[in-house]
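Figure 3 (text version): structure tokens given as input.
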């Protein structure tokens, strides 16, 4: 499962941070995920519980912040927010829209002890 390897890399980042900042317990992790990252949130939560078992993040809450899909509309010549790839511009209805963001997958912050 794709989500399992994502969680493994999240946990390895957490463990590196734990050494660098000397904390021993993680209470909450906040992730920023864009709709274009191709992550199944339910699978991600399930994988997170499995992968964190026995480590410093065991039992921690996984909070997901869903990021918008951002794009550049050429006719409007400004950034806009669309719901998904291939959506028209919400302002002018044009399909000349270039996706600029929405595939984020990163740790925003975490609450530690
Ligand atoms: Zn537009």
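Below: residues designed for each position.
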């Amino acid at each position: 499962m794709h989500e399992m390897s994502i969680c493994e890399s999240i946990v390895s980042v957490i463990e590196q941070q734990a050494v660098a900042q000397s904390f021993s317990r993680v209470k909450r992790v906040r992730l920023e995920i864009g709709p274009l990252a191709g992550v199944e949130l339910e699978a991600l939560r399930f994988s997170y519980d499995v992968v964190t078992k026995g480590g410093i993040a065991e039992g921690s809450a996984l909070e997901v912040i869903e990021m918008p899909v951002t794009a550049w509309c050429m006719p409007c010549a400004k950034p806009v927010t669309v719901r998904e790839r291939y959506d028209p511009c919400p302002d002018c209805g044009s399909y000349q829209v270039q996706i600029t963001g929405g595939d984020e997958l990163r740790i925003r912050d975490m609450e530690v002890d």
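The pocket of zinc ion is lined by residues 73, 75-76, 89, 91-92, 94 (CB under 6 Å).
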